[in-house]
């Protein structure tokens, strides 16, 4: 699976890998085999940091990995993207975006940084074959 992921994301930088972790591929990162291949592929990218043990907003134990993202023109042009993993299973339990800087003229408000500006949590999950089937 890792070669396939590397082929799919061959032109992506580490920020793009984190973006898909919280977006299109978030459901797949609940599968331990996919999560393992994803994390192995991520090790080939530069700029990824292991932040260590932490907890998510729901208080669950996690291991955090992160990357800094430069997003010129954004209200928060410097950000840290975090992927929080279940330390026992290696699957994703949440993603966080932390503002490291704020364009106060665009926001029209002064925000102390660092500040969490978004997060997504996965609390329960199940795989189903379609949108009609319920677990």
Relative strand content: 25-35%
Radius of gyration, taken over Cα atoms and rounded to an integer in Å: 16 Å
Structural class: alpha+beta
What is the mean pLDDT?
86
Number of domains: 1
| Poorly predicted runs | none
- Net shape: globular
- Kindly report the spatial arrangement of strands forming the biggest sheet: 1-2-3-4-5
Count of helix runs: 4
**Main beta-sheet annotation:** 5 strands, antiparallel
Topology order in helix (H) and strand (E) letters = HHHEEEEHE
Strands, total number: 5
Give the secondary structure arrangement, pairings included.
Blueprint: H1 2-8, H2 14-22, H3 32-42, E1 49-55, E2 61-70, E3 78-85, E4 92-99, H4 104-107, E5 115-121
Antiparallel strand pairs: 1-2, 2-3, 3-4, 4-5
Helix pairs in contact: 1-3
What does this protein structure show overall?
This protein is α+β, with helices and mostly antiparallel strands and 135 residues long. It has one domain. Helices cover 23% and strands 30% of the residues. The protein is built from four helices and five strands. The protein has helices at residues 2-8, 14-22, 32-42, 104-107, and strands at residues 49-55, 61-70, 78-85, 92-99, 115-121. Strands 1-2-3-4-5 form a five-stranded antiparallel beta sheet, covered by helices on one side. A hairpin with a 6-residue loop joins strand 3 (78-85) and strand 4. Helix 1 (2-8) crosses helix 3 (32-42).
Short synopsis of the structure:
A 5-stranded antiparallel sheet has the order 1-2-3-4-5, with helices on one face. With 135 residues, it is α+β, with helices and mostly antiparallel strands.
């Amino acid at each position: 699976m890792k070669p396939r992921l590397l082929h799919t994301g061959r032109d992506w930088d580490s920020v793009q890998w984190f973006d898909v972790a919280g977006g299109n591929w978030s459901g797949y990162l609940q599968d331990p085999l996919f999560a393992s291949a994803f994390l192995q592929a991520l090790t080939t990218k530069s700029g990824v940091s292991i932040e260590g043990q932490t907890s998510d907003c729901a208080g669950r134990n996690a291991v955090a990995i992160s990357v800094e993202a430069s997003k010129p023109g954004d209200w928060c042009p410097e950000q840290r993207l975090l992927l929080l993993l279940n330390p026992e299973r290696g699957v994703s339990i949440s993603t966080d975006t932390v503002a490291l800087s704020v364009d106060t003229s665009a926001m029209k408000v002064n925000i102390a940084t660092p500040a969490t500006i978004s997060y997504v949590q996965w609390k329960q999950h199940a795989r189903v074959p379609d949108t009609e089937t319920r677990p």
